[in-house]
Amino acid sequence: MRPIQKSNKLAEVCYEIRGPVPEKARQMEEEGHKITKLNIGNLAVFGFDPPDEIVQDMKINLSNAAGYTDSKGMFAPRKAVMHYTQGKNIAGVTIDDIYLGNGASELIVMSMNALLNNGDEVLVPAPDYPLWTAAVSLSGGTPVHYVCDEQQEWYPDIEDMRRKITANTRAIVVINPNNPTGALYPVELLLQIIELARQHDLIIYADEIYDKVLYDGAEHVSIASLADDILFVTFNGLSKNYRACGYRSGWMVVSGEKSHAKDYIEGLNMLASMRLCANAPGQFAIQTALGGYQSIHDLVGPGGRLLKQRDLAYKLLTEIPGVTCVKPKAALYMFPRLDPKIYPIADDQQFAYELLAETKVLIVQGSGFNWIAPDHFRVVFLPNSDDMVEAFGRMAKFMESYRKRHGASF
User: Fold this and answer.
1) Is residue 260 located within the same domain as residue 200?
2) Torsion angle of C-alpha atoms 104, 109, 115, 118, degrees rounded to 10
3) Which residue ranges does the record assign to the Aminotransferase class I/classII large domain (predicted)?
4) pLDDT digits (tens, 9 = 90+) for 26-60
């Protein structure tokens, strides 16, 4: 029989967070090995539960959740999102500008599907959250990666961004707070990105899913709050701020200069209707989450579990010879660098395989985030402190062995 091939559109798509190395980890688990999973920000498996009031509201409303909702979502949760955008100082947002989705991920893909024709380009950060690169490619577009500068707190390199804008560029993706680096962008930088978009008539897509996971008193500013003369599409949801990944409840907000985007918005409406609606139980959680007690502040503030685990993970990682890391100001991740002189890595996926096989610790290699060199990897700092000490201790021994095997000295 003729082999059945996957679509050519998948040729440039990777999602290593759930890729071949995690698949190997799954096989090892089936063989009886205990794997420490530092590869994905799945908070519930590490004991970070959603607020009780969200859970109770979903239970109470479950009997009302069997039918389709409006294709953009129920009125009450969209109204709550509208109030949330007002609190973030994003001007001019109405109920009609808000789309609820099965997580922000669904809406990211929808937003690219509605925009891109073959040959269109979108500027995406490197490193990035790989769904963005995949969504552009699957929509027929070409992702063009602008560099974020590790020497400058992982901030986007504005000049690199400027050089990569062409006649085919349609949009700029801004992930702030950033996954995988944990960077948080200052207003001055956001204004420079806006000016680039203004000069070249580009849309700004703002992924702000970690906008409450902030450390050391940091504050997040939504880029869409800083201008109203260009089009912004902003994404957020319950997965991270409210530890509700599995509820698949997110939203997308269209703001700024909408009058010239009527056809694009019509496309968004068509796609929203085609998927019928977002899951109704998850929609019932939104109003309670946004209007209730913001327990995330207890986790990231002084004495909070996430803050303590960030500090511990940073200490344990940077104590390993040849490992450096920009301390994250936000989100759930670290993106440490391995000095190439000490760790001569040619294939970072193979490095992740070897680390998994020898230590039972699962990470994601930097190339999985479209990073340009095999010298980084991403870890989450979600396991409890004892488990992190154990995991990073095994990692440190592996690194020592790796240095010896490859003849590197320190």
Assistant:
1) yes
2) 160
3) 34-386
4) 999 999 999 999 998 999 999 999 999 999 999 99
